[in-house]
Amino acid sequence: MQIEGRVMGLGHPDYANxxxxxxxxxxxxxxxxxxxxxxxxSIRILEEAGLGESPACIxxxxxxxxxxxxxxxxxxxxNLQRKILHNLELSKGWDSLDTTMAAETLSVTLQTIGxxxxxxxxxxxxLAVRRKILSENHFEVAxxxxxxxxxxxxxxISDIKVNNDLSRSHLVKAKQLVSDSIRITEGIxxxxxxxxxxxxxxxxxxxxxxxxxxxxxxxxxxVGLLEATRKRxxxxxxxxxxxxxxLRKCISLYxxxxxxxxxxxxxxxxxxxxxxxxMHIIQLDPDILNAPxxxxxxxxxxxxxxxxxxxxxxK
Length: 315
Description:
Layout: H1 2-8, H2 13-28, H3 32-48, H4 55-70, H5 74-91, H6 97-112, H7 116-133, H8 139-158, H9 164-189, H10 193-196, H11 202-233, H12 243-255, H13 257-265, H14 268-283, H15 286-289, H16 294-314
């Protein structure tokens, strides 16, 4: 890198690209302070070269944002994410998937720091744009629905003043949002024959199914949280999906050859999070824990967790 800097100059965009690659390596080595310093310098070079709104600079700012989130520096991450969104609004406008991606990332950070109203406004706007550009049944639309469902539950949990009627209304809304997300993703993973003909490329099908699997795992986790919140609020449960049903779906995902391969190759961490979250919720609820066949389901879940751990250790 030092040779490249002397040849091209330390302010050359290609040198900034080399620094970005180095930052990624440093991050993988868990040298986050070094990675942050290098990526900040890469961004500075591009901005001083008049490329602050370029795709390359946006990419680097997204990387830095992720590093800040990993380091729990959420205020700094929020400020950078606002800058990314602002730049994309200026360069591409709101009718752009890149802009909705930036808004979605910012909305998740806002949820984490408790800014639920602004987070919801951003997600609603993302949802409208994605439905317009993509389709009602696209996995990226389903992803926004899951975020909105989780946010709706956070409203109940974070506000002790929520009355019973409003709490019940939020639970119904969250259930509908997560149910729609599950319907969309399961439709992608198990398409009807006439819908299969519409899918053109193998690469496109692969991407759709990986994305749908990732969103479905998030949705199943939210189903468990929905049940836990319902119990906490002592709401009647006859109209709600149970964590048990979500656990069965999660196990079924792993037992199907295709999605099992997707989980092993791309989504192990997401799958482990979903499965462990559902197991934890069930183990804390005697009504579900003592249901017929539940111990067998938990045993199967523990077997899968052990298998995934062994796969991870061999790589």
